[in-house]
Amino acid sequence: MYLSPYINNFCMLNIALFGPPGAGKGTQSQMLIEKYNLAYISTGDLLRQEIAEGTELGMQVKDLIGRGGLVSDEMMVDLIEKKIITSSDKKGILFDGFPRTLVQSYILDGLLLKLNTSLSCMLSLEVPDEELTRRLLERGKVSGRADDTEDVIKFRLQEYKEKTSPVIGYYQERHLYVPIQGVGPIPDIFDKLCNAIESMLEKEWFNLVVSGPPGVGKGTQGRMLAEKLNFYYISTGSLLRKEIKAGTDLGAKVKETYERGDLVSDEIVIRLIEREINVHNSVNGFVFKGFPRTILQSYILDGLLRRMNMGVSYVVELNAPTIELIKRLDKRGRSEKARIYDESTELIIHRLEEYNSKTAPVMELYKKQNKHVVVNAMGPQEDIFENLLDTVQSAMKKSR
């Protein structure tokens, strides 16, 4: 079974194990992939396999390694993609020896994006040059590797520092870079790596989209979930109504849009959601109610979350028969909780039609990404919530 391009990104633990030649990446990698059930991608192993098989690429690689040079990005991308496609389905990927340059960092982001995932962290083994040289010379005596001579070692360490320094900055800016002291007993170093991973997993946010047609109860259930799970509840509808109530210029535009029964422009919604995320960043995650409603908005939300090294974790679509939805909305329209868009049957039907034409395709998109589930919204409110809570908590456990 190959790794699907629609794997849920929050069900994957993707680690780049970073460090200079001789830092012990290979040894620690084997222990990490066994503990966390990860697919292992070692650029060094991939290159040596090509050399052993005597391929044309292998001959080119052999010449480069013999001179202490780095293999081209094009070569590495071909090898890595080939390995990913043919790997068994695991809980994530461990990259050993990649990325080594700033360009490769962007390349890795692109490769993982194709898998609908992202890098969880970069763990960097920190070892002094003197210790690295000693280890590599000893390895050369034992293995007879052509790239473990003193001159080549000196060149490789210098090249490593020059080319990988920007990589460190790249991941530091994204708060993904974690330095690990790489000197000491192997089990002690492994414990440090595992502690760093566990700490990262504990901080990982779970972001939930609660969707469904108008009148299905998204607001009620979304707020209850947020309170129960220490999530922050973001309702685009509530945010927009606050603007209307405050009498802002933005609110006036929103009111006109509501009176037509149309969707509010993405520019307005983006501004409000981004503000909420930035202000409320100490929670376990976010519940997004009423967003995304279109395919374009799903891309927008993904972009907003990726800026914070997050993504959409799970999507719950509440479902009820159309006739039931019309009854609920008509009842609300005749109560104190009436909204502008509940005032007529014509507006209600228009909104239901908009959901089917614009939001249903969004649900199909999340289905392909294995992030989507339908929950029956008929019955007592408490029963619906209990079913919904069980569904979300089960998804959260699988994502850890």
List the main descriptive attributes of the protein structure presented here.
400 residues, alpha/beta, Rossmann fold, 2 domains, 5-stranded parallel sheet, elongated
Descriptive overview:
- The chain has 400 residues and is α/β, with parallel strands linked by helices.
- The chain has 16 helices and 10 strands.
- The strands form 2 sheets. A 5-stranded parallel β-sheet has the order 2-3-1-4-5, sandwiched between helices. A 5-stranded parallel β-sheet has the order 7-8-6-9-10, with helices on both faces.
- The chain has 2 domains: 195 residues, Rossmann fold; 194 residues, Rossmann fold, CATH 3.40.50.
- The N terminus is likely disordered.
Q: Biggest sheet, open or closed, and with what strands and sense?
A: 5 strands, parallel
Which stretches are poorly predicted, pLDDT < 50 over at least 5 residues?
1-10
DSSP strand count: 10
> How much of the residues is beta strand, in percent?
5-15%
Number of domain modules? 2
Query: C-alpha Rg, in Å?
Result: 26 Å
Helix content: 55-70%
CATH architecture field of the largest domain: 3-Layer(aba) Sandwich
Strand order of the largest sheet: 2-3-1-4-5
- Which CATH class of the largest domain applies here? Alpha Beta
Mean pLDDT: 86
Q: The CATH topology of the largest domain is what? A: Rossmann fold
Based on secondary structure, the structural category is: alpha/beta
